[in-house]
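Slide 14.
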Amino acid sequence: VGMSHTILLVQVGQGDANRIWCDCETVQLACDAVLKMYEEYLKKTYPDIQNIQYSVDDLFAYLDQVGDVSCLVHDHADNKYTPRDTAWIKEKIFKNLKKSAA
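Slide 15: predicted structure.
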């Protein structure tokens, strides 16, 4: 799954203008895109703070309040895209952060 093409889908509010999608070569890059999206949100929310620190719990709370965060992950065996929900994305982000911290 790690090297599978992934399409990240985010609905941050009502209406088509609030839909964001990101075409990523891997699941890891999709996770990175979610982190970047959260960090951009923090920069806009707290423009006067230079170094913003956050926890995984902060990130996950943000994902829960955003609306819909999901992705489509290419399955090489079946040559189709499998939908994945926010809980799956959180699990992948947590594993990636844990791996990079080790």
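Speaker note: The chain has a mean pLDDT of 91.
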